Amino acid sequence: MKKVILRQSTSRQQLLSVAFLFSFTFLCFSQDTPQQDSTSQAMENQAAAADASTASTAQVGAGDATAGKELFNTLCASCHKPYSNSVGPALNGITERHDNDWIYKWIHNSAELIASGDAEAKAVYAEWNQTAMPAFPQLSESDIDNILAYVEQPKPQAPTAVAGSGIGEGSGAGGGVSMNIILGILIFVLVLLLLVLFLVNKTLRNFASASGIVIPEKPKRKPLYKSFVENQFLVLTSSIFVLLAVGYFAYGWTMQVGVDKGYQPIQPIHYSHRIHAGDNEIECKYCHSSARTSKTSGIPSLNVCMNCHKAIAEVAPETATEDYSKEFYDKEIAKLYNATGWDPASRTYSGEEKPVKWVRIHNLPDFAYFNHSQHVSVAGIQCQECHGPIEEMEVVYQNAPLTMGWCINCHRETNIRIEGNEYYEKIHEELSKKYGVEELTAAQMGGLECGKCHY
């Protein structure tokens, strides 16, 4: 009877453990709900406040900030920034430093105002190293008011994190339970169940032993490896299969040696092709200018970067993404300034330059010859044909395998472009008659000859 009572108490422990598990899980979900609701409400309030702030600053004074932004980006952004100095001073707060009539005269013709002996104009001209400002007589006073309305808007603040919005926080507005605590309790319950099962098994065996019940033991079977060794046909078949598999995978591995498709290294200075070639539509050959006339596309000099970044020390807020914030991009521009020795405050070079150790991505073996100018200038091949959607890449990676087979397939499938290309006209006419076709591929023009790439 005692053994029967023990067995019933064990079952009772199991039921109690399962009931405790479900109760605790339900309690955790009920506590998480108000926290999530409060977090959502806080985020909605923050978004509403941001919308209200935007709406309130859309019209400043007598000007239209929206129209002013378009004028500013078109006429002023190359020399001025709203909140920091550039070639000229920061424009935010200009209506407090000067009256509107003076601003109208300065923008319409600053040289004329300086020549008239105006004290303010002469002081500004001297303060900014006597840098001449272009005249804008085409701008009406209404246009200037629009620009002023845009630059006088308060500087946008970075969004602040909502308290208690993090996942798995131990405390918050709703007082939710930490996920670590939940996982710890679940592990404890599972361990408890295993212990109960062990005790039940032990109790049943003791009960059977006390009752004189003999538990039959399973007969021992022949080990599997002995059965396998004794079957000669199975051994032969398995050996052939293993040899074929090893040969297949060994061949596949050796064919991948030196193939770096997908290679995506981190560069010492983050350069976003998405922003430069995509959003700003900068021509690839503006930076890689030697691709038109040389074997290699070349590594752009930092002086090329500074052609624009003398005036661009920070990115626009809308440029930021979920993975890369505005602060991140601004820090990368600061790295560029540090490497070139540029001081954005004094707008002068210190002369202390530091080399940037760029990591090469596309690298052909030494025995393979490839000429960028022949493909870019003569054949008119677009960069994306080999490098992929470069204008969409935040971090550049190798898009194509750049193997011999990949190049040969391209030569077999690509027709020669002869429109306006006198280089191919005569030979194209002769080979078209030879092959009886109107258009020739690069392969038919000799693009598969070994000496073209290996010499």
From TrEMBL:
Matching Pfam families: Cytochrom_C
The keyword Transmembrane appears for this protein: yes
Positions of the Cytochrome c domain: 63-155
Keywords from the UniProt entry: Heme, Iron, Membrane, Metal-binding, Signal, Transmembrane, Transmembrane helix
Membrane spanning residue stretches: 181-200, 228-251
Signal peptide: 1-30
InterPro entries reported in the protein's UniProt record: Cyt_c-like_dom (IPR009056), Cyt_c-like_dom_sf (IPR036909), Multihaem_cyt_sf (IPR036280)
Coiled coil regions, renumbered to chain: none
Annotated protein name in UniProt: C-type cytochrome
